[in-house]
Specification:
about 120 residues; alpha+beta; Immunoglobulin-like; five-stranded antiparallel sheet; rod-shaped; signal
């Protein structure tokens, strides 16, 4: 009888300790890059639309949006843009100097968190 009561007491103790204790999660924030879109906007102009989403990031958090292309075939007009996280998008205009050229670009969004991605395309 004593062993049974002791076993029940131990079981209930572990049950209540695990049932009523909760995990303390560490708060974090994260920016998630969404797929980008490249659109032709004339004979020698391309528009790159960049979008993002996030977790636990304030809507009025200032962000810096950048685009750099490593080719002389294109020039980025306004490569550094300032805005807020709540905009959730950026638009970059590229001037094309040479057609049928392979271009590699780096795009990033920076605030307390950041993401950087590389992509290639052909003009």
């Amino acid at each position: 009888m004593n062993r049974l009561l002791l076993s029940i007491f131990i079981f209930l103790t572990f049950f209540f300790v695990t049932a009523f204790s909760h995990e303390k999660l560490v708060p974090h924030s994260e920016i998630i890059a969404l797929p980008l879109k490249i659109k032709k906007a004339g004979h020698n102009k391309l528009i790159i639309d960049v979008a993002w989403d996030g977790v636990n990031v304030k809507e009025d958090e200032p962000v810096i949006k950048r685009l750099k292309c490593f080719s002389k075939a294109v020039t980025v007009k306004d490569p550094v843009q300032k805005g807020t996280f709540g905009e959730r998008k950026a638009q970059f205009e590229l001037i094309v100097h040479r057609n049928n050229a392979h271009v590699k670009c780096r795009q990033g969004t920076v605030d307390g968190d950041s993401f950087i991605r590389f992509f290639t395309f052909q003009t």
